[in-house]
Amino acid sequence: MTRVRIEQETPLPEACSPTDLVFLLESVLEEHGADGTVTLVLADDATLCRLNGQFKDASEPTDVLSFNLADPVHPDCSDLGEVYISMDRAVIQAREGSRRLSDEIAWLAIHGILHLLGYRHDSPGSAASMRGREKEYIARFQAGKHLKGV
Fold first, then answer.
1. What is d(CA 23, CA 18) in angstroms, rounded to the nearest whole number?
2. What does the pLDDT read at residue 71?
3. Distance between CA atoms of 135 and 38, rounded to whole angstroms?
């Protein structure tokens, strides 16, 4: 069973539906055959800066971080990973890109989920592939069509 759990260290704005976001992310995971739980943590710049420094050797905040928790030593563990989103960054990026905040949060969450599924953007080809999937899923989110194949 695929499940997305949201932890809100920073509250989700009223205009953003946690139900729609969870439904979208669960459909992305199911479409890729993932089985388990992903925790989406909505945090602030300070939290992502701390995590970025601790795990990525970077001293600044970032918009999204993914941590794959799949463990071959413990295959019975149902935790697939954690995705952290800086709500501070999301607000700034939505404003700069003239996007709705809910779309920016969905985009960042999709980006993080795709990383958990093995997508990368470390070459032009892999970046284009990942960006294409992000656009596909965000279009579903914007259209309110979160189901696979709809």
1. 8
2. 65
3. 21
